[in-house]
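Workshop exercise sheet. Pairs work together: one partner reads the sequence aloud, the other fills in the structure field after running the prediction. Swap roles for the next sheet.
Pair: D.N. / O.F.
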Amino acid sequence: MTKIIGLTGGIGSGKTTIAKYIQSLNIPVYIADEHAKNSIDIPEISNKIQTLFGKNILENDKINRKKLAKIVFNSPEKLNKLNQIIHPAVNVDYKNWLKTKKKFPFVFKETAILFESGSYKDCDKIITVVAPLETRINRVIDRDNCSREEVLNRISNQWSDEMKAEKSDFIIENIDIENTHTQINEILKKL
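Structure field:
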């Protein structure tokens, strides 16, 4: 039976960079955030989001992700409501993806909210990616062209690295990419 390896970490930790490296080794990786972003464009989901947040989040008849992010990352209640719309669709998509990967000894599921969503319970092993707070903040500011305050709001909506580390089998310190690749390769040997 295919083992599921959870890959998680806070925003800006570099978990998606690590996921892409693992994919380059021909190991299947489900990147939940990419699927969540794509699900927003599904008409049924888009309509539910518009009903919940109003037409002011639209730009050229599509949901403006930056506007939506600004709303939800300033309100845990609104973030929770958005997650209640998106997560069921992503979960169905993930289960369908997993069915196509049965020939592999293990696959990775990369998601920022592995613990918060409870999906860690479905994993055989869990890897948490950590990086210094300032490094994370700077990565997100550079990547998303947003403010320090916006990044800190997003971080405050996630479990701390310490909480994630307690429930993880492996910790990757992602500061230097070469060292990070070495850490991943060592973990892959153990899997």
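Discussion prompt: The mean pLDDT is 93. What would you look at next?
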